[in-house]
């Protein structure tokens, strides 16, 4: 069933990557209706969890988990490096750590989906 929607999933994935990058380089507006310490770290993990699951569903390669991790990790590092050079953003190693946590949670979820669908 997923094969039927693979082209659409890939389009959604590429739109998501571009959207995340653009949102990550825009100036930050610190006025938010909900604020607590570490909220941005939770957001980082959730975004990369979403990208990880979506990338898995796209099925770009057969050895998907290594490449999935590598691509998304590299994407997170590129975002942080870009933010380092922007005066209105900042580089944070904790963001990369929470990006990685989201990727790993996505891969674990993907393994679980694979096992459930193959049974």
Write the layout of secondary structure elements.
Layout lengths: L5 H20 L13 H20 L5 H21 L8 H26 L1
Summarize the structure in short.
The protein has one domain. Helix content is 73%, strand content 0%.
Could you please describe the fold and organization of this structure?
- This protein is an all-alpha fold.
- It has one domain (2-22, 38-118).
- It has helices at residues 6-25, 39-58, 64-84, 93-118.
- Helix 2 packs across helix 4 (93-118).
- It is globular, with a radius of gyration of 15 Å.
- The two termini are 16 Å apart.
- The mean pLDDT is 87.
Radius of gyration: 15 Å
Low-confidence runs: none
Straight-line distance between termini? 16 Å
SS-derived structural category: mainly alpha
Mean pLDDT: 87
Number of domains: 1
- Helix content estimate: over 70%
Q: What is the tally of beta strands?
A: 0
Q: What string, H for helix and E for strand, traces the elements in order? A: HHHH
| Shape by Cα distribution | globular
- Major β-sheet profile: none
| Number of helices, where a helix is a run of at least 4 consecutive DSSP H or I residues | 4
Residue fraction in strands = under 5%
Distinctive features:
mainly alpha, globular
